[in-house]
Amino acid sequence: MKAFFLCCFGLISTQLFAQVADTSALYKAIKTGDSLIFDIGFNTCNLAPYNDIFADDFRFFHDKGGITSGKAAFIEDMQTGICKQENKVERFLIPGTLQVFPLENNGVLYGAIENGDHAFYITEKGKARYQTGVARFTIVWLLAGGKWKAAEALSYDHRAK
């Protein structure tokens, strides 16, 4: 009876906690994509990787700024928004919050869901960088032709720090 209980608990816990380990190839691939979007693109305004990392029909949902539809519109919003601001805005992944969940069809990996929390900082001219807020995010990644593409992203639950 004890063995049956442990077996059932093992099956249930596998279903409840289906995120991949942070040492897995999938986790590392998604974390690399996150870094291209935020550490390279958002934080430095080097938007060149965006042409490869976002799907053409990418959609971005922001709880304060609405919906942006299409990769071209998203890149334009970055160029004319964050990248044109006088004060430097940066986003950092909050350590320990990144989760990656595989998406499969009949046992074949076709995508992943990335969840986590991120913090936003601002640097005003002549002042030290300071945190302005935190939020949650979710990105749906699709594997197409051996490349990971961000298909949809949500940034929500924005709170002031």
Please tell me about this protein's structure.
The longest helix has 20 residues, at 25-44. The chain is built from four helices and seven strands, in the order αααββαβββββ. The chain is 30% helix and 44% strand. Strands 1, 2, 3, 4, 5, 6 and 7 form a seven-stranded mixed sheet that branches. It starts with a helix and ends with a strand. The protein has helices at 2-16, 25-44, 50-53, 71-80, and strands at 54-62, 66-69, 88-93, 99-105, 108-123, 130-144, 147-160. The chain is α+β, with helices and mostly antiparallel strands. β1 and β2 (66-69) form a beta hairpin. The model is unreliable at 2-16 (pLDDT under 50).
- Annotation field: number of helices: 4
Biggest beta sheet summary:
7 strands, mixed
Poorly predicted segments: 2-16
Q: What is the mean predicted local confidence, pLDDT? A: 91
Q: What general form does the structure show?
A: globular
